[in-house]
Design goal:
With 159 residues, this protein is an alpha+beta fold. The chain is built from 2 helices and 7 strands; from the N terminus they run ββββαβαββ. 19% of the residues lie in helices and 27% in strands. A hairpin with a 2-residue loop joins β6 and β7.
Length: 159
């Protein structure tokens, strides 16, 4: 009998993780394995969190987070209305829900857009925010890498 722990027994988040603030209500896909989640903030901003599979490995995911409201010229416009902590808590909840239905996933990749005037930085402020949050909530069976403007969390391999 093997001592190896099955892949789906590795939680993505720490067992003691609890959100600091309540998340917004989440609209989950009609199909459990779906990849598009939505939520609306208290100020009426509607967001989409979309999970895309990497071309070279179906178990690796790219997380795309965008605002859908037409009032913004593009999906990465400045949208801060004082709701950032609840927005982040909601994105974390969506990732948790997605991982429950895709427990064999081996990585999640995030990259944040640059705010106007900060394009010369190596890493965007949003990516640094994602990185700091992931370091706090990630289960020890996962590793985190910040490279350029990309944060990737990987399931650690058993030796």
């Amino acid at each position: 009998m093997s001592d190896a722990v099955p892949a789906h027994d590795h939680p993505l988040f720490r067992e003691d993780y609890t959100p600091e603030v309540a998340h917004y209500p989440v609209e989950i896909p009609g199909i459990r394995s779906g990849s598009a989640y939505y939520f609306t903030t208290g100020s009426g901003l509607r967001y989409q969190v979309l999970f895309a599979k990497k071309k070279n490995n179906y178990l690796e995911n790219i997380v795309n987070f965008s605002v859908l409201n037409e009032e913004f010229e593009d999906e990465y416009s400045e949208t801060n209305r004082g709701e950032i902590y609840r927005v982040i808590a909601t994105v974390v909840e969506i990732i948790r829900l997605y991982h429950e239905n895709h427990s064999y996933s081996t990585s999640y990749e995030f990259s944040g857009e640059f705010k106007k005037g900060n394009e010369g930085r190596e890493t965007s402020i949003r990516t640094l925010l994602y990185y700091r949050k992931a370091r706090v909530i990630l289960h020890p069976s996962w590793s985190i890498v910040l490279e350029g403007n990309k944060v990737t969390v990987h399931r650690k391999k058993k030796v």
